[in-house]
């Protein structure tokens, strides 16, 4: 404890505005990580001693790095094996840390919860501001998808996209989205939110038809967005696809929204709807002319 206080005093001396500096957070994040690392070491020894009584023996030791809300911890744990060659990691099982995942269950839950309330770029910015570690918006999306897969594995819910094994690989995808207001009686109105995607167009006689179109509409924009996201992830491998998107740029249809729908693609190009661009130009020109007249 004395050495910890001494180190903290040294940090305070170096940083006059101590509590406004990042070194403050870094110091405590590293302190907690070190204490956690030592605790894991002790816990691993105790758990493995119990497993030895059940016929397991230590096969080897290996490192693992996990990111918790308080920071990233690298620790060494024992891999154990029994006579049937069953390989287990007692400490990982005790902590509930899943194979192939670099984040704690609490991080998975919190990031997924934030991802359901805001765009992934904002989640990434929130993590950067409030924690000692960073996560790109691409990783946020991957984490949300992975968490959904884990939940799905334990759920009896049947998705309409279950059973899709081979994902389509296409050179181009065309995405559109907008909201349409439907006026009703007594000044009431509804707004229908709509997304559509297709693989291009082709001539059929004297008219053009979309290739493999898919439409999603809902009175709730977030639900329409999530449905389109689920469809794209289920049906397409976008790693070699150029995604071309179009919208009026209104609330909920900004470029960032389509960036997320196109995550993982080869390239994303976003355009504003021609009609709305012309309308906005007319509005701005009218304001300019009126200001000059005044």
TrEMBL record:
Which InterPro entries does its entry note?
UPF0236 (IPR009620)
Family, similarity comment: Belongs to the UPF0236 family.
Protein name (database record)? ISLre2 family transposase
Lineage here is: Bacteria, Bacillati, Actinomycetota, Actinomycetes, Micrococcales
